Structures are given as C-alpha cells and as structure tokens.
Amino acid sequence: MPTYAITGASGQLGRLAVHELLARGVPVADVVAVVRTPSRAADLADRGVQVREADYASPRALGAALDGVDQLLLISSSEAGQRVAHHTNVIQAAKTAGTTRIAYTSILNADNTINPLAGEHQETEQALRAAGVPFTLLRNDWYTENYADQLGQYLEDGEILGAAGRGRISAATRQDYAAAAAAALLQDDDGNRTYELGGPAFDLPELARVISAVTGTPVTYTDLSVDDYAARLIQTGLDDASARFVAALDASIANGDLQTTSRDLEQLLGHPVTPLVDAVRAACG
Ligand SMILES: NC(=O)c1ccc[n+]([C@@H]2O[C@H](COP(=O)([O-])OP(=O)(O)OC[C@H]3O[C@@H](n4cnc5c(N)ncnc54)[C@H](OP(=O)(O)O)[C@@H]3O)[C@@H](O)[C@H]2O)c1
User: Fold this and answer.
1) Ligand 1 centroid to residue 76 C-alpha, Å
2) Half-sphere exposure of 41 toward its Cβ, with a 13 Å CA cutoff?
3) pLDDT for the residue numbered 285
4) Between vectors from CA 78 to CA 72 and to CA 81, what angle results, nearest 5°?
C-alpha cells in the first residue's frame, strides 16, 4: 500500500483530510501527519497515525518527515509572505524522497485573478511544474467558515460590511474540501490535474438573507467602496495594511475571482456540495 502524508495536519483542513483518508479505507499505519507541533496532533497519534515533526522552514526536518512517502497532500502554509519558501522546501523534500504525486491546496481561478493572496499560490504552482513531480492542483475557493465564523458579530451588528458588491462566492466548507482532497489523492491518476473547487455561488446580500432566515435576526449587507471599507476596518482596530488587504480581498470578489461554475468539487465528493444554509445552521450550534 502507498504511504500518504498530509502537511499542516494539526490544522483544521489537514486534520479533516487525515480523517477522510482513514474513512476511505487507507490503513492508519500508511498515513503520515506532518506537523510543526506534535502536541497539537496527539489525537491523530492516539488513532495510530504516524506523526512526524517538521517545520515548513526546515528542509532537513522535511526530508526526514517525507521519507518513504508516496502521495503527499501539501496544505498551504498559513504564514503569508513565507509561503513560497515553505512550499518550495516541501516540494524539494518530496522530490528527493521519491514522492510520486503532490496534491497542493491552491486558490480558485489562480490563472486569472486579482486576489492579493494569489501570487504565492501562482509561484507555488510554478515550483510544482518545475519540480517535475506529478501534481494535482486543488484550487480551493473561500471556506464558508470565513463567514460562518463571524456569525456572532453579524448578529450583534445586524449588518455585514464589505466591498464585494454583487460579486459571487462559490464557497464551500472545509469538510467538503478535505473530502475532495482525499478523493483526489486516492484517484488512480498520474497526470497533472487541476481542479477548480467551489460550491453553489452566493453574494453577500444573499448571505445576509440566509443568516436572517436561519436565525430570525435581521441582518443586512452594506456595500462600501474599497477605501471606505478599509477605513471602517481601521476604525474597528485593524492596522492600516491589514485593513487594505481585507478590503482588497473583497475587491477581488467584486471582480468575480471567487466564482466558478466548475462541478469539480461535487464530482470529487460524489454528492452535492454542502449548501450555504446548512453551513449557517451548523454555525448556530
Ligand atoms: N480558502 C480559504 O478560505 C482559506 C482560509 C484560510 C486559510 N486558507 C489556507 O488554507 C490553509 C489550511 O487552512 P486551515 O483552515 O487548516 O488553517 P489552520 O487551521 O490555521 O492550519 C494551518 C496549519 O499550518 C501549519 N503551519 C503553519 N505554519 C507552519 C510552519 N512554518 N511549518 C509547518 N506547519 C505550519 C499549522 O501548524 P500549527 O498547528 O503548529 O500552528 C497548522 O497545522 C491555510 O494554511 C491557508 O494557507 C484558506
């Protein structure tokens, strides 16, 4: 049996991906969780998963962690600005280890987007192509949780603020992306595949309507210019650079960058993508 490794396995997406591989019948002894902080993966070790320690910044530790790994799910680093260096370290370690495929969690529409997060994903995709190891690009849209996790704030304010206009977002839950990643990794597919992964699209006025309907508390969406949105974020305590960054993410949504009509996600899942209304209900606890 091949050995599967997941980086970032102590994180939210990575942990779900480990569980999805096991649920799909991969023997626990064949699953390697690559983590920076082993104590955060104690639950995985308790299940029998091999937990190996490696920081994305440490080529030597990555080399040891990926020894004997056939199929790798490289979950993008959460350290903006360091991602290309981190991912390149992982790709080189996997190549040296003789890994036969690297699946990488990229960003939707990576070829044509103004999303300020996209540059590091584009460079990583280029590094994968240059490495010559077969790869699978899992170009994930937004997590639905990016919004669902702010439910309490939306309800308190009665308002969602943004600068996304009527831009639509084909968000999906982490659970769905994790299941799709596991399915893609298990597919007998040695060609270089690109999946554009997202669910049914909604815009922020629709998100407000869904939240209002599910909770019974009226919530409206207020659309601001990018500059005004950044200014409001600064008023709430965000630093200038972060506020501009968040506002630029909404500008990218307004540009249509986070919308897709691709059915890749539901095809990998083998069932419909979790609807927004279910994700909002789940966030209500
Ligand atoms: N599509 C979206 O909407 C969206 C939203 C947020 C993030 N993302 C991207 O998707 C990735 C996974 O999302 P998530 O929700 O699972 O994020 P998460 O819960 O924050 O998990 C991030 C994981 O990356 C690990 N990590 C961070 N820096 C590392 C380093 N230097 N070396 C080794 N491991 C390191 C963390 O390890 P520790 O447990 O030790 O901290 C953790 O396991 C994120 O990292 C980010 O690139 C996408």
Assistant:
1) 6
2) 30
3) 81
4) 110
Question: So what's the pLDDT on residue 224?
Answer: 98
- Asked whether 97 and 72 are in contact (CB, 8 A), the reply is no
Render pLDDT for 35-65 as a digit per residue (tens, 0 to 9).
Answer: 999 999 999 999 999 999 999 999 999 999 9
Ligand 1 center–CA 46 separation, angstroms: 22
| Sign of the torsion formed by the C-alpha atoms of 178, 181, 185 and 188 | positive
Q: Six-digit token pair at 213?
A: 């309907």
Is it the case that residue 137 has pLDDT exceeding 90?
yes
Q: Which residues contact 267 (CB under 8 A, 6 or more apart)?
A: none
Q: What is the pTM of this model?
A: 0.98
Residue minimizing CA distance to atom 3 of ligand 1? 142
Question: Please, what's the b/e burial string for 216-232 (b: 16 or more CB within 10 A of its CB; e: otherwise)?
Answer: eeebebbbbebeebbeb
- Residue whose CA lies nearest to ligand 1 atom number 33: 55
CB of 171 within 8 A of CB of 199?
yes
